[in-house]
Write a structure and sequence with these properties.
Strand content of chain B: 5-15%
Structural class of chain B: mainly alpha
CATH topology of the largest domain in chain A: Rossmann fold
Number of domains of chain B: 2
Low-confidence stretches of chain A: 239-244
Number of helices of chain B: 18
Largest interface: A-B, 33 and 28 residues
Largest sheet of chain B: 4 strands, mixed
Radius of gyration of chain B: 30 Å
Number of strands of chain A: 10
Number of domains of chain A: 2
Radius of gyration of chain A: 18 Å
CATH class of the largest domain in chain A: Alpha Beta
Shape of chain B: elongated
Mean pLDDT of chain A: 90
Structural class of chain A: alpha/beta
CATH superfamily of the largest domain in chain A: P-loop containing nucleotide triphosphate hydrolases
Oligomer: heterodimer
Distance between the termini of chain B: 34 Å
Mean pLDDT of chain B: 86
Strand order of the largest sheet of chain A: 6-7-8-3-9-10
Helix content of chain B: 55-70%
Largest sheet of chain A: 6 strands, mixed
Shape of chain A: globular
Number of strands of chain B: 4
Helix content of chain A: 40-55%
Strand content of chain A: 25-35%
Low-confidence stretches of chain B: none
Order of helices and strands of chain A: EEEHEEHEHHHEHEHEEHH
Strand order of the largest sheet of chain B: 2-1-3-4
Order of helices and strands of chain B: HHEHEHEHEHHHHHHHHHHHHH
Chain lengths: 244, 392
């Protein structure tokens, strides 16, 4: 369960996020939809506890992220905007390192990493150094290490960015299976099809604020557009007019 | 307990990562061999030079003008008289000869008349290698001159002492141990450099490198305190720094065992205890220098930027070395709590054969460890800054 209310963040005079409120309950997938620069990544960074909001409240499973970032991080699996890997380590070693940092014991890490490597199709690469991996393979490694501790709350920043069709499908399958397991998944995207195919609820962000909130059908009804993409354009445009 | 395990996880990961990094490994290896190499070279050259002054091949021109003098020279130990090249000055200028003695063709006549006879000593003052040899030849000539002068005075019924108004007696107070310390004074500097450079690449890679690769943000998403992360990284860099110091010391001892001390005119040798003391003195410093490097490179967004900062940081171990040439550090154990400077001061005493009281070592170690702790704490705080975490 992730709950965000009235989130605000300024960088100098720029208000990157001015009023973001949404929540994602267990067993649901929530998509943050917005243009580049709409404030999605900043929102997710505050959600992760690495960036302190100037206002508002973030909680994960009832834990205040600002007050107890470590407790919240224990309950979350995060795929951040930057997915830097260690070029001289193998995928298995990446997973083990993060597992150890989560305080897991060796045997638990081993069985969990075997499962993740299989699920993500990384088995043939498991013991090869990641230097020279493709974008898709790197994203999978980053995802695997983020999920090593079997978090109940999963936050993914543009998870399909730069992935080919096969990898995108694998990612969608993974998100669906996480939902099936009863996890709460929040992910950001600027791709319509993806959001409509996966999400139970869509949060449209424009100019740092939530301009619409609901299921795909509700958004279509709200804007009177039959096509979700048109609805999105209408909604983000509304945010822009608002600014002017 | 959990924190200790996390620190160990970070430590182990950085060590594995560092061991696979060609840059980190080669910097460790280079740090370890630089001291013994330099040291071995320095002593071998010194010994050779000294040997060359003891055993001299002296080219003499116009030996036929002074048979008695040349005979006397030949009888001196280690002196071999050879024929001089035709152009003596040219031969010295082109470094074919270190020194040439030219005996004036009027030498015999002047000697007989008891007026000063002339010999020319051809040498090149800029040639460091030939200096001791030239001094030896000059000394030989002066000895012969004094002897002959004394005999002349005796023949005239005058005591030879009359001609000498003042006699200088050299009283050398430094023990051979201290003379050796002068030669060895470069050892602490070399060890400090090893301590600094041994873990430097690893410290950069685990901070600035982490930022450059974009792996810092994912790392910080783990439920680990910044302090534990900084401590793990620091310990890994320190392990490399200490490794460089230990390797450097072991290799230096190996080299020292082969140094021809006898040829250097030194009776004493540095004992293993003294070398061990030196090692224990420098090791805590490696922990401090690693923390310093780690702190400085956390500010850097990339490897290259870090190396720019650290170029300036390299001065830290050099400066006290320069200071010590104007302001000798030996006999000032109260400098102990000053990082780096204290280590140099204590090392000078250890090598001088006057080891300071054990309390000073403890003081020096405590001081650098405290400073290291502060630097690790500051690094941990930097890791919490949004500008550092997200500023790429």
């Amino acid at each position: 369960m992730i709950a965000v209310s009235g989130l605000r963040k300024c960088f100098g005079h720029v208000e990157a996020v001015r009023d973001v409120t949404f929540s994602a309950s267990d067993g649901t997938v929530v998509g943050l939809l917005g243009h580049n620069g709409a404030g999605k990544t900043t929102t997710l960074r505050m959600l992760s506890g690495l960036m302190v909001p100037d206002g508002g409240h973030v909680s994960v499973d009832g834990m205040d992220v600002v007050a107890d970032p470590i407790g919240a991080q224990r309950a979350m699996g995060l795929l951040p905007d930057s997915r830097g890997l260690y070029p001289r380590l193998t995928p298995r070693e990446h997973i083990r390192y993060f597992g150890e940092l989560h305080g897991m014991d060796g045997r638990a890490i081993e069985s969990r990493s075997a499962g993740l490597l299989r699920q993500l199709g990384l088995e043939p690469l498991a013991d090869r150094r990641v230097a020279g991996f493709s974008q898709g393979e790197r994203t999978k490694v980053a995802l695997a290490r983020a999920l090593v501790h079997q978090p109940r709350n999963i936050v993914l920043d543009e998870p399909t960015n730069g992935l080919d069709v096969m990898s995108t499908r694998a990612m969608r399958a993974l998100i669906r299976s996480l939902k099936q397991e009863g996890c709460c998944v929040v992910f950001s995207s600027h791709i319509m099809q993806e959001v409509s195919a996966l999400c139970d609820r869509i949060v449209v962000i424009a100019q740092g604020r939530v301009v619409a909130h609901g299921t795909a059908d509700e958004l279509r009804a709200q804007t009177g557009e039959a096509d979700l993409e048109d609805a999105f354009v209408a909604l983000s445009g509304a945010g822009r007019e608002d600014l002017e | 307990m959990r924190t200790v395990r996390q620190i160990f996880a970070v430590f182990r990961k950085e060590l594995v990562d560092g061991a696979r990094d060609r840059r980190s490994i080669s910097s460790l290896a280079f740090s370890a061999v630089i001291a013994p190499l330099l040291f071995g070279l320095m002593f071998t050259v010194a010994a050779e030079r000294r040997k060359s002054a003891d055993e001299i091949r002296l080219p003499v021109q116009g030996a036929e003008h002074a048979p008695a003098f040349v005979d006397w020279l030949t009888q001196q130990s280690g002196v071999t008289i050879v024929a001089a090249p035709t152009d003596a000055e040219q031969a010295v200028a082109t470094h074919d000869e270190d020194v040439v003695l030219i005996i004036d063709d009027q030498f015999g006549r002047d000697m007989a008349r008891a007026v000063p006879a002339t010999v020319k000593l051809v040498s090149d003052v800029t040639r460091e290698n030939a200096r001791m040899k030239v001094a030896r030849v000059r000394n030989l000539v002066a000895t012969y001159s004094g002897m002959t002068g004394g005999l002349r005075l005796l023949a005239r019924g005058v005591a030879p002492g009359v001609a000498t108004a003042i006699r200088v007696e050299d009283v050398e107070v430094s023990t051979s141990q201290q003379r050796l310390a002068m030669q060895l004074s470069i050892l602490p500097l070399l060890l400090v450099i090893a301590a600094l450079t041994g873990g430097m690449q690893l410290a950069i890679d685990s901070t600035a490198g982490e930022r450059e690769r974009g792996s810092l943000e994912p790392l910080l998403l783990n439920p680990v305190s910044r302090q534990a992360l900084a401590a793990g990284k620091w310990l890994a860099a320190s392990a490399f720094g200490c490794g460089a110091v230990v390797f450097s010391m072991v290799l230096t001892v190996t080299v020292m065992r082969r140094v021809p001390w006898h040829d250097l005119g030194i009776r004493f040798r540095v004992s293993d205890t003294e070398l061990m003391t030196l090692l224990l003195l420098i090791l805590p410093l490696a922990l401090f220098l690693s923390a310093l490097v780690m702190f400085a490179s956390t500010f850097a967004r990339s490897f290259k930027e870090a190396q720019t900062y650290l170029g300036m940081l390299m001065l830290v171990p050099m400066l006290p070395g320069i200071v010590s040439t104007i302001y000798p550090l030996a006999g000032r154990p109260w400098l102990a709590p000053v990082p780096v400077l204290g280590q140099y001061a204590l090392a000078a005493d250890v090598l001088g054969g006057k080891p300071p009281h054990v309390v000073f070592y403890i003081l020096a170690a405590a001081s650098v460890l405290l400073c290291a702790g502060i630097l690790v704490g500051l690094t941990a705080r930097l890791l919490g800054r949004e500008a550092i975490v997200f500023g790429r």
